[in-house]
Amino acid sequence: MIIENKIIQGKNLRWLLRCPNKNDAVELSKLRVKIDGETEYMDRESGEGFLSPEDFQKVIYEDSVAEKNIFLVAEVNEKIVGFARCEGNTLSRFRHKAEFGICIAKEYWGYGIGKVLLESILEWADNSGIKKISLTVVEENAKAIELYKRYGFVEEGLLIKDRLHKDGSYYNTVLMGRLA
C-alpha cells in the first residue's frame, strides 16, 4: 500500500512522512544497521539479520503492491531518520491480523516521530480491514509501552527471559495487541 506524502510540523522539527521507493534501499539498509546498534530495545544487534539494498528493494516493492502491508519512512532534510512497517498475514485464519514495528535513529528520539508513525499505521490498518494489530516490545522500554497503551494496545502476554543481551542478562518481551 502506498500513501500520499505528508509534511509534519512536530516538536521543533519539520519532516516528511512518506512511503519509500527503490532509491531509498541503500539508505534504509545502512540506517537499519545503525539503529540496531544504538539501543538494546531492538530485536537485533547491529549487523544481525542484515537486509541488503536488494533485500530492501524487494520489501519496498512487495509492500507497495500488497493490500495488507505498509512501509513508511520519516525523512528530515532529505535524510531518512526512521521507519515503520506493518505486515498483514495471508493465512486464512489470520488474515484479520497484522504485526508492526517502528525504529527511529536515536538523535531523533523525542520529536514525536514515533507517535506520528504509530498514528499513521493505525489509521491505515483501521481503513484496511485489519481487526487486530500486534507488536512485541522489551519490558524495560516503558516509554514505548505507555505510548502503545495510549493508543489502545493492551498487554496480552509476557515471554519470560525471552531475550539475551550483550551484557549477559535476560530480558522479558511484552506481547501487545489492539483490536479495531
Give a concise summary.
This protein has 180 residues and is of the alpha+beta class.
Quickly list its features.
8 strands, 180 residues, 8-stranded mixed sheet, globular, 4 helices, Acetyltransferase, alpha+beta, Aminopeptidase
Describe this structure as you would to a colleague.
The protein is of the alpha+beta class and 180 residues long. It has a domain at 6-130: Aminopeptidase, CATH 3.40.630. It has 4 helices and 8 strands; from the N terminus they run E-E-H-H-E-E-E-H-E-H-E-E. The protein has helices at residues 25-36, 53-65, 113-127, 142-150; strands at 6-10, 13-18, 69-76, 79-88, 97-104, 132-138, 154-164, 170-179. Strands 1-2-3-4-5-6-8-7 form an 8-stranded mixed sheet, with helices on both faces. Helix 1 packs across helix 2. The longest helix is centred in the middle third of the chain and has 15 residues, at 113-127. It is globular and about 40 Å long.
